[in-house]
Every structure is written in structure tokens, then in C-alpha cells.
Amino acid sequence: MNSHIEGTKKKMEKTLKKFKEELSHIRTSRASVSLLEGIKVDCYGTKMPITQVATVTVVEGKMLVIQPWDVNLVKEIERAIQKSDLGVNPSVEGKVIRIVLPPLTEERRKELIKVAGKLAEEARIAIRNLRRELLDKFKSAKKEGEISEDEYKQLEKKVQKLTDEYIKKIEEALKEKEKEILAV
To answer: Three-state secondary structure along 62-131?
Structure first.
């Protein structure tokens, strides 16, 4: 039964990792290379992340500078950024693309916090679903006589403790992101 718990723990860890990754794509008042990670560029007949076709650097915390390795990709990268939900307008200067991140308005900050909250709720639901699936396995094992009532209660406590641990980690990541969004 412990192998089932370990398997569920790995799934919970993946859920947490995915949640943190999604949070990293939410814009804060500081420039970050991770803002561009979700944006794909048409190049060489396939879609590739900007970070795989260009060097991206952060300048003074407010600007991203993108230098494509192939100069022919400048227009494609510019187009991909304009189509994205970043809400910024890139400026092309020869072989370089610059993105100046304007300060976030109070209204936009509140929207971003709502988005982060929604992502956190989805992650919490995923964690609870994993808990339910595992407890269902244990209930059927109890019905089949594979484990006793006492063993079931112990396993139930372990699973709840694990669930609480991952819900807490989600809350901590959400609070940290909210601080970043509200920071001026």
C-alpha cells in the first residue's frame, strides 16, 4: 500500500511543479525570461519556444532584449510576441528586439492575482482528486479483505497528511506570486 502512496506523492509533486511553472508565466512588474517561455515562433517549419531560437536577456529589470540566432527570425518573433497575451509591443532595432515592460496598473495587478488564484484552485482540485483516487483504492482493498479497518484508518491519515502538505505548498507558492505581482 505504501507503493500506492509513493505513486500518488509523485503525481502530487508533478501537479505542484506544473502549477509553479504556470505561475512563472504570469507577468509581474519585473522583467523575466520566463515570460517568453510559453510563446512559440514559426521557424523552419515547426513551432519553437523563443528561448530556443534566440538569446534573451533582462536589462535593468524592466526590459527584455531578444537576439535571434538567425536574423531571418526577427519578424516571426515580433509577430509571435504581438499575438501573445503579454500585452506588450516589441520594438525591432536591426537584429535585436526590445520589450519594455510598462508598470502594471492596479486593475491589471488585481486581474493577475485572480488568474493566479484560479490556477491555485485548479491545482488544489487536482491534489484532492489524487487523494480521492487513492482512498478509493484503499476502500476496495478493505472490502476485499486485503487490509483491516485499522490499516485503512492509518492509510487514510497518511494520505490526508500528504494532501495537506501539498495544499500548503500550493498556498505558499500563490502567496509568493501575489507578493511579486503587488511589488512596485
So the answer is: CEEEEEECCHHHHHHHHHHHHHCCCCCCCEEECCEEEEECCCCCHHHHHHHHHHHHHHHHHHHHHHHHHH
